[in-house]
Amino acid sequence: DYLSNTHPKVLLCGTAAAETTLTFIRHVLKINKLAEINIIDIHEYPIKVSKSKVLQDSSIDTERVVFLQANALALPFKTGSFDIIETDLFLLFFPTEDKALLFREWSRLLSPKGVITTREFFPKSIFSRISCSIKNKMLKAKGITTFRTSRSELESLAQDAGLETKFAPVKIGFVKIAALSHMVAWKPSDNS
Question: Taking the complete model, does pTM exceed 0.85, yes or no?
Answer without folding.
Answer: yes
